[in-house]
């Protein structure tokens, strides 16, 4: 009886929310200002109300297709290197990174179990404002966020979601998908507000949120791995560096190593996601879309938003202006690097 009542309440909530077609899931609902897959709204709601973060918890947060799998593998290897000192018998050789670092949203579907060994390491695509209070303000847990060139995200997401889409969804044409993407309509979108939410918190609380760029990891993974370890409170000793422990972790977690691992070539996680689809190219600048210039006028929380997207050959520039809360974001993608500049001015402060 209680289950039927709960289901009725869920249906009532869904009926009141704006709905759009998803990329991999038939329906996306605008839930708490982000486009949540219909199969996860109930789980996100339970996550917010019931999850109790521990002081030692670590969260790997990201927008989908931003380097999540790679960062999960690196983070797990860093904090567990004393438990699994032998690379030859490492759990990453027998388990997918998403099994070792479960997505909290899927824990409440019963698809994965909560880690029992501390520090517990979780993954999440939930935007920062929608995280439980126990994570945001009631504990000293750590969050690592990774962002990526939004055009690489688009290409990767378009290909990936088409492979895992549920029936009876048809394939999205790339032009249609790009228009949806620029309007923020994608699983856990809009992507710009997702980035901004974690970026602002990393500026306000740098000891709690570490903001990383996928492109920086690709360019100097040794430096970034050491930075992650320092942030998490698991710094590498000089002895470990001399013994090339960092190099071993980097090799173990490399895209090539994980893609070629037998454990990632077959099998399913979360009941419907094939492991092999998590590994495609892992490259930067994998987008080659000539769409000229796109201008959009959007409404977010009653604030006027202007988004300008310019793509010319190998260079792109994105400008996002929110006129009420005064947020300015400029993202420039060059041949070998990505530059993110963001200014957030709080009213009443100079």
Describe the structure.
The strands form 4 sheets. A 5-stranded antiparallel sheet has the order 10-11-12-13-14, with helices on one face. Helix content is 35%, strand content 22%. It has one domain: 3-Layer(aba) Sandwich (Rossmann fold). The termini are far apart. The chain has helices at residues 2-15, 41-50, 68-79, 97-100, 104-107, 133-136, 150-164, 174-182, 191-204, 214-219, 221-232, 238-242, 245-252, 255-260, and strands at 19-21, 27-31, 34-37, 58-62, 121-124, 142-147, 209-213, 268-269, 273-274, 293-300, 303-312, 315-322, 327-333, 338-344. It has 350 residues and is an alpha+beta fold. The protein contains 14 helices and 14 strands. Strand 8 (268-269) and strand 9 form a beta hairpin. Keywords: Transferase. Residues 56-288 form the Sulfotransferase domain. This is Sulfotransferase.
Descriptive labels:
350 residues, alpha+beta, Rossmann fold, 5-stranded antiparallel beta sheet, 14 strands, 22% strand, disordered C terminus
């Amino acid at each position: 009886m209680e289950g039927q009542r709960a289901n009725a309440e869920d249906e009532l909530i869904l009926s009141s929310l704006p709905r759009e077609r998803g990329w991999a899931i038939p329906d996306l609902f605008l839930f708490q200002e982000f486009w949540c897959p219909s199969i996860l709204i109930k789980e996100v709601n339970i996550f917010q109300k019931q999850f109790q973060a521990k002081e030692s918890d670590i969260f790997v947060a990201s927008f989908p297709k931003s380097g999540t799998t790679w960062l999960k593998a690196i983070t797990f290897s860093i904090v567990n290197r004393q438990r699994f000192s032998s690379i030859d018998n490492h759990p990453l050789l027998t388990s997918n990174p998403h099994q070792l670092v479960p997505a909290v949203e899927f824990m409440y579907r019963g698809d994965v179990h909560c880690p029992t060994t501390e520090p517990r390491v979780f993954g999440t695509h939930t935007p920062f404002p929608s995280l439980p209070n126990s994570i945001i303000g009631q504990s000293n847990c750590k969050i690592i966020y990774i962002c990526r060139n939004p055009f690489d995200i688009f290409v990767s997401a378009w290909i990936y979601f088409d492979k895992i889409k549920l029936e009876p969804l048809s394939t999205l044409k790339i032009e249609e998908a790009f228009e949806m993407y620029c309007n923020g309509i994608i699983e856990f979108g809009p992507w710009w507000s997702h980035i901004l939410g974690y970026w602002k918190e990393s500026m306000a609380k740098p000891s709690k949120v570490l903001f990383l760029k996928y492109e920086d990891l690709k360019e100097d993974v040794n430096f970034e791995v050491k930075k992650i370890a320092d942030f998490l409170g698991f710094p590498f000793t000089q002895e470990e560096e001399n013994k090339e422990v960092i190099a071993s972790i980097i090799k173990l977690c490399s895209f090539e190593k994980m893609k070629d691992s037998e454990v990632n070539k077959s099998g399913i996680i979360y009941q419907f996601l094939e492991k092999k689809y998590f590994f495609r190219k892992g490259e930067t600048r994998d987008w080659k879309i000539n769409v000229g210039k796109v201008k959009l006028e959007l409404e977010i929380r009653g604030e006027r938003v202007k988004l300008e997207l310019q793509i010319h050959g190998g260079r792109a520039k994105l400008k996002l202006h929110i006129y009420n809360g005064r947020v300015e974001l400029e993202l420039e993608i060059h041949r070998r690097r990505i530059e993110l500049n963001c200014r957030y001015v709080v009213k009443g402060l100079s």
